[in-house]
Amino acid sequence: MSEYIAIGDAVIYNNHHLIAFNKPNGIPVQPDQTEDPSLLQLGSTYSQTSLHLIHRLDRPVSGIVLFAKRKDAMQELHRQFREREVRKSYLAITAVAPPEKQGELVHYLKKEKGNYRTVVLDEPTTDTQEARLGYTLLAQSERYFLLRIDLQTGRYHQIRAQLAHIGCPIRGDAKYGFRRRNPDRSIDLHALELIFTHPRTGQEEKLRVAPPETPLWGGFGINWEEWLFEF
Are 108 and 153 in contact (CB under 8 A)? Predict the structure, then answer.
């Protein structure tokens, strides 16, 4: 875990049924083989109740993670994710521009056994899953390009694998072909927005969080707080 961040400072949404955090990169969402403190454990301690996992972010990724405080809320959110009623948007930094300023990627993915990696195919086979995402080129700096990703399916390493497949690996993602790792082993992928229906009230909830406050993310000339309010 990033030691300089207190878990309470990462809370972005909290009520009797749900709680959401702005996860810093480097923290696992759930316990893994490293035995490092996970967001699930830290969040449960903070909430003084056992939280229930709804969805995941890869350890090197930052952004929104939502947990349930009640099993019925967990079950309803699982249903919403399964039936693709939840909308998810991300920001990604690449060193190569996509072929078009805006487009949709449709591929077929399968998870390689043993090495925690996804293989991308252009045509389906019996052991693949369809993967869809939309992307928009938002801005560019002197060296990098900023993409907004609207995820339509939720496959293992989907954004990382699909962008790498079209020649645009995410900055720092050496697993998928970027030329070097980031010093902190993060990758420059951020879970920007999560839109879902509250399981008790039936109201639409829209969560948004700005990317990390670093020179890299700041290099695109975007005032993130104003941009989040406007978009």
Answer: no
